Amino acid sequence: MDRGIRCQKCGLMQLNRPSCKSCGAKLSDYPFTPNIPGFHAEQPGAKDPSGNLSSFPMEANFGTERIAGHRFHFHGKGLPLFGIYGVNLFLSLVTLGIYYFWGKAKVRNYLMSHIELEGDCFEYHGTGKELLMGFLKALILFFIPLVALNSGPELLGTGPVIRSVAAGLAYGVIMVFIPIAMVGARRYRLSRTSWRGIRFSFRGEAWGFLKIFAFGTFLSTITLGLYFPFFDARRYDFMISHSFFGNRNFSFNGRGRDLFRPFLVALLLTLPTLGFYWFWFGAKKQRYYWEHTTIGPNRFRSSITGRALMNLQVGNFLIALFTLGLGWPWIITRKIQFGCKYLTLEGPLTLAEVQQEAQKAVATGEAMSGFLDTDFSLEV
Questions:
Q1: Which of 36, 113, 173, 197 has its CA 20 to 30 A from that of 258?
Q2: Which of 211, 241, 213 is closest to 227 using CA atoms?
Q3: What is the pLDDT of residues 26-59, one digit of tens each?
Q4: Average pLDDT value over all residues in the chain
Q5: How far, CA to CA in Å, does 358 sit from each of 244, 248, 355?
Q6: CA 319 to CA 313: how far, in whole Å?
Q7: Measured between alpha carbons, how far is 114 from 122 in angstroms, rounded to an integer?
Q8: Contact between residue 319 and residue 331 where contact means Cβ atoms under 8 Å apart
Q9: From 17-26, 136-145, 300-309, the region with the lowest mean pLDDT
Q10: Model confidence at 266, in pLDDT bands (50, 70, 90)?
Q11: What is the CA radius of gyration of the chain?
Q12: SS3 label, residue 126
């Protein structure tokens, strides 16, 4: 049986080695002994009765259950995705933009079908027709009224009072539709995603998220941004706790106050580090969010580091700069590969208990998120 050891500084499970592959910490400085009944394992580096060195196994028996770290893998490449984008661009020009929605669905299908967990890839079931219909609905319900509020008073030559009222209404419409678009986009994306034939779903109501969004925006404004860690955690909690895999609910037990001090440190170090410390805060926040996210008996674990995040984002910026945007497919694949590399799902996969509970969803919120730049995309 393959053996491995977990770094107790960053959490990465890896083959036995002198130092951690991710954070560089000496593994001998962070011994790991699970305090779980039924588990019997020796310390890393200890000797078993035969005299051989032993370490914490990658898969170990806890009582009668097998506990394992299930890793995500991304097998997509930039060159095939570049070809898909090229065909999409050509057909979009030929069809006066209509093929864009089919091309978007094709890109998502490629990306999702190359993300693997436990030997099976995810699937995307959305269609170009759904995206087109969602776009047309969003155009009628949101975009045309917004343009009318912004341009109507000027075209009609109304006075400053009417213009101010129209501008205020337009701002209000945007602030209301941002959370609605975010909820709608997540509902549609998850409803069109599956793994091993089981669909994901999102069952949160837009009104609940609207209240969180309005309250959080207000408090973040009057506190000059100091409330933001609490606001961000509440938004994440809403999106996670209303997400399902079949009939199994995701949950989040993190708190914004746990990130408040690191957020203050990042603010204070912004000028001395020329803003680079925000990469370390971003990595810390991602680790915290993932490690407080569970689904059934499984907990996510992230080993992302600030340096790795900085290298990714700086590298992506340079690719975009020197390719004049043509390297975008490589940027997308780098992001997804990076996310999968540092993410692990821990615990036994008791899939026999998961039942299909597909939910209905339309692509209107998906289209609104595109208008408002609140897209929950695979590339992020």
A1: 36
A2: 213
A3: 665 544 444 333 334 334 344 343 333 333 333 3
A4: 81
A5: 9, 12, 9
A6: 10
A7: 7
A8: yes
A9: 17-26
A10: very high
A11: 24
A12: coil
